[in-house]
Amino acid sequence: MEQLIPLLLLLVIAQSVVMLWLHYRFRKHIRHQQQPAPDRGTMHPQQPDTPVGSAELVVPSLFTTLAGSIDMGLVLINSEYHVCFINAIAEQLLNIDADKALGQGLVTLTRDHSIDSMMHEVMQDGEQRDVTLQLSAENRILSLRLTAIASSSGFHGLLLLVNDITQKSLLERARRDLMANVSHELRTPLASLKLLVETVQSRPPDNVMDRMLAHMAYEIDAVTELVEELHELSQLESGRITLQLSANDMRESIAQALNRIRPQADRKALQIEANWPKDMPLVLMDEHRIGQVLLNLLQNAIEFTPEGGQIQVELRIISIEDQHVSRGYVQGLQSAEGTRPIAAPGSDATSATVLSSDADRTSIVLPVPHAIGTWMMVSIRDTGVGIPSQDLPRIFERFYRVDRSRNRTTGGTGLGLAIARHLIEGHGGRIWATSEEGHGSTFYFTLLLA
Fold it and tell me: Which helix (H) or strand (E) holds 130?
């Protein structure tokens, strides 16, 4: 709030300057009102003998200076609802050219007819009004505030303030979504716990009592996991978690993760393979946090792969030479016709394919932008149910699930991938996925070499 005080004070000063100047000019040159006014649409400089007619507004130099120094759009409209001044911020927000805007009606610029009626209402009663303008073509949301410019003789025009509230709206939507998602995630286990407690209170037989208590413990664990992951995600997003980076062998981290999830894979008769070149350099990483990412991705692969399926973990060294080009090169791998696909990890790709060969180097698609340098790319491929293409861009959002109906059977909080994304990006790398529904998914992430 304290940051807004200087801006609000500046706006009050600007409006006061305009109102006092108009009042002064009107009283001084009232005898010249019948003289022809200059062409509309021109921004008039301050001149001692310029008349102020009912349809023209004089723009003093002080106002022009103030309007150019504030970080919001400002438009001055005369009594005939024509634009007679517009600052650079308003040009940008409204996506218009000042030379074309001057002398035009505001409705022509905003392409919103509700603003026309609002301008007439403000000119009639002098009451300030606010409206939100959705620019669907540019995917932006603008906040417009209309204020009448008044003097003792009446209203002479309008002052329009324009703010881009797109980011604010997105944050508010994220907050509402978070509250709705947390409520949804808590409602089911709490409702289940309530029923279980009521059952226990009815003093059922011992075997039923034991079963109910075990179910209660499961639901409590689910709520505890949700709260802990929410706390961890909030810590990551606020930058309160410090990564302990050191040179580590990624192969050891993968081996530890595979040992931990091996019993789950054995219960579904899943075949797990890990492949990497003979000589692998060390990676700069937080061993504990990367182990957490690996466990999450492997557990997801196990949960969504049917019995008898396969999961494959691969390590590759890739070279990225231009962060603005979505292409990297796999070191030590020759591109040849019939080669098994290595990766096509683009946000809009649906399968892994080798793209081309450049001087005997196999090139792959990467997310843009990606920092240049030599990186280790970890991929975890499964033969599971896959992810629909329309859901793929959103899977790293918190609480997002492709199929909510499967949540109670597969478990999870819907926060694992969001946490994984923050952890990998905290290392300076990128994480992404490719998938083809019904044919499995592949998750990738990159880490910088030590």
Answer: strand 129-135
For the record, the structure tokens of 68 come out as: 């150019």
- CB 37, CB 53: distance < 8 Å: yes
Assign 44 a pLDDT band (cuts: 50, 70, 90): very low
Q: Which element (helix H / strand E) includes 13? A: helix 4-28
Residues 274 and 313: beta-carbon distance below 8 Å: yes
Integer Cα distance of 216 and 224 in angstroms: 12
Cis, bond preceding 36 (omega within 30 deg of 0): no
Alpha carbon distance 432, 445 (integer Å)? 6
Distance CA 308, CA 192 (A): 33
Residue with the larger pLDDT of the pair 184 and 397? 397
H-type alpha helices, 50-165: 61-69, 88-94, 98-101, 106-110, 113-125
Cα–Cα distances in Å, from 414 out to 186, 222, 225, 392, 431? 12, 12, 11, 14, 17
SS3 307: coil
* H or E element that contains 168: helix 166-201
- Which is nearest to 379 in space by CA: 307, 305, 309, 294? 294
Question: What is the set of domains in the chain, with CATH numbers?
Answer: 4-164 (3.30.450.20), 169-237 (1.10.287), 246-448 (3.30.565.10)
Whether the CA torsion 286, 287, 288, 289 is positive or negative: it is positive
pTM exceeds 0.85: no
Of all residues in the chain, what percent carry a pLDDT higher than 70?
A: 73
Tokens describing residue 216: 């209660």
DSSP string over 212-253: HHHHHHHHHHHHHHHHHHHHHHHHHHTT-PPP--EEE-HHHH
